[in-house]
Design brief:
The protein is built from eight helices and 15 strands. It has 354 residues and is α+β, with helices and mostly antiparallel strands. Belongs to the Mu gp47/PBSX XkdT family.
Length: 354
Amino acid sequence: MYEHITYDLVMQRMLDEVPDDVDKREGSIIWNALAPAAIEVCNMYAEIDYTYDQTFADTAEDEYLIRRCAERGITPDPATHAIFKGEFNMDVPIESRFSLEDFNYVVREKISEGIYKLECEAEGVGSNSFLGPLIPVEYIDGLTIARLTELLVPGEDGDDNESLRRKYFNSFNSQAFGGNAADYKEKTNKLPGVGGVKVYRAWNGGGTVKLVIINSDYHKPSATLIADVQTGIDPLENQGEGVGIAPIGHVVTVDGVLEAILNIATDVTLQDGWTWDDVESSFFSVIDDYFSELAETWAKSDNLVVRISQIETRLLNVTGVVDIMNTTINGAQQNIILDADSIPVRGGVNGQRN
């Protein structure tokens, strides 16, 4: 707002107020007296400009954005710890610690003999993609097998300025109140591991509500995550009694998004000297990235549409590919419209070389 207020401008304004019969040249007494004041005035304008920006949600940052959001009842979500399933050849002590890659994990709960829930000590999404053999931090007699086998509840990064800003502006578009759809979406999305939700009313008669969730990595949620959300919203043993987040009288059922397996086939022309083995992994990555982008929009879409044109356009950018044609999805040369509660997952990819 005050970017145009420079030191030279302020200094000239001040000198213009001094009578012309006084020596105003640089180095003069009056010039030397005014110069420090001009610097302070410029600093003051910079502070005013900064303060002005912090009063509006679209430019506020950090603590000022948090305070602005608090006026709408919005608080930043903290980072959370990922929960995994660990499998061992024996029972291990609760609170025993293991490491994998750059992360440490703590045994939190026994599921069954030799199977436990482990919590990553580090918060955030960093550990979500790691599965494999675990190394005990301290020696455990008789332990020969220790593996992370499944991500149960994804870890989440806490809200940054931009995600918090989006929540602030979204709060004006729909008003959450007393178990309406916006209320269910807001409260369900706040639960750890949830990346999105669709709400269905009266799906099984009056007073029933169905929530279909996707995890925060935008994949099919685990049975553990579904159970955790069910307990938080409307515990099965007390359904409809208002014990959880759901209002009394609402019988809520939580389910997970489904995976639609899509097999891709295409005729591909490669550069001279290139083979299918050279591009296969890149094809997998490109298709996976496209499907992941679609999955991120699932909660806001009535039905996801997997488009052949998108697949071909993206595959054409793979190094070594000259041309793509005759692409099919599940044997049909047409776009695929998925069910409302489904996300795409790559099946087989067959690239017929020309």
